[in-house]
Amino acid sequence: xxxxxxxxxxxxxxxxxxxxxxxxxxxxxxxxxxxxxxxxxxxxxxxxxxxxxxxxxxxxxxxxxxxxxxxxxxxxxxxxxxxxxxxxxxxxxxxxxxxxxxxxxxxxxxxxxxxxxxxxxxxxxxxxxxxxxxxxxxxxxxxxxxxxxxxxxxxxxxxxxxxxxxxxxxxxxxxxxxxxxxxxxxxxxxxxxxxxxxxxxxxxxxxxxxxxxxxxxxxxxxxxxxxxxxxxxxxxxxxxxxxxxxxxxxxxxxxxxxxxxxxxxxxxxxxxxxxxxxxxxxxxxxxxxxxxxxxxxxxxxxxxxxxxxxxxxxxxxxxxxxxxxxxxxxxxxxxxxxxxxxxxxxxxxxxxxxxxxxxxxxxxxxxxxxxxxxxxxxxxxxxxxxxxxxxxxxxxxxxxxxxxxxxxxxxxxxxxxxxxxxxxxxxxxxxxxxxxxxxxxxxxxxxxxxx
Length: 451
Fold this sequence. Notes:
It is built from 16 helices and no strands. It is mostly helical. Helix 13 packs parallel to helix 16. The chain is globular.
């Protein structure tokens, strides 16, 4: 393939995936926007609750993300039986994972208190999680089926179904948070109920599509039947992917806890700035999914040239995205933060000032954050997950989190210092992941494919 063909292929596959990630992200964004206008206390409680929820949710997504490169490789080899087996066991593992973590969400209040949060915030966060936690099961199953469809290049339906779920969540939030159309005013409880409904809508839609449009895979026929060999293979790839994600998300969630130590206003500002930065990260994540699929295809076809050029094309598009978002974050910080705030909120000015400062720091980690997630996507496509997991633990937990604490509290830089620790951790991970792919994985693949 020529360079032009590679760029076209990446965009054709990637744009619907990016749109799907943005639509999925908009579910949490809608909660933040609406609860931000409902009150600063509700927004702070949501920030705490979603920090724990997504820490556990994204770790569980490791099994779904393991399905993606496996299906891409089996599709390149023309092996529909293995496609079915891998996807089914991804569904099994996701269900078992949910059964393990739901009790933790149910008793999250004491955990948040032990981590230094105020009693009122911890109680409100637990109320949210006891309801929203039940949305984790359909959410994880949706992620498995999305990975399955994306690996088969059926990305448009993923976008459409996610958009439908996002619309359902937005409408439910409007009705239940503020008590519209005759419904009671439920505040943060309404946001939790709406999230569960939207995830269930997405699961129903994507399952119906997979059943009717891909009958040759018969995903749901005898779904109850165990498959020990494939269960083990998905588990052994998915576990390090999940732990890698846990390390990265843990870095961000540790900053949320530290911001909570500074008070309600800094925590609310953190939630807004993180939501804004996460929106641009969804673009990089979509490109990372493309990287996983295309490197998985290259692995199945044993095509080293395709691997190298495809990787370079994805990285170039990610870099261009980073440059645009850096300009936006540095030039329009107050305008972006103000979108989340009620003009009448007495804490508005304080949140606005803190949030704008945090966005300036967020601009610094756009390049390194994009670089590390693209490298991870490429390595996952080659089913290289264990060493990246070690890199993530070192970069995020051994370096990033201590750096955040040191800069934020020891050097007394506050929220800006805490976020600067993110730059340190992400920067180290980006360098090491890129080195792993280009200096180790690519040469090894070239030697293997030439045999």
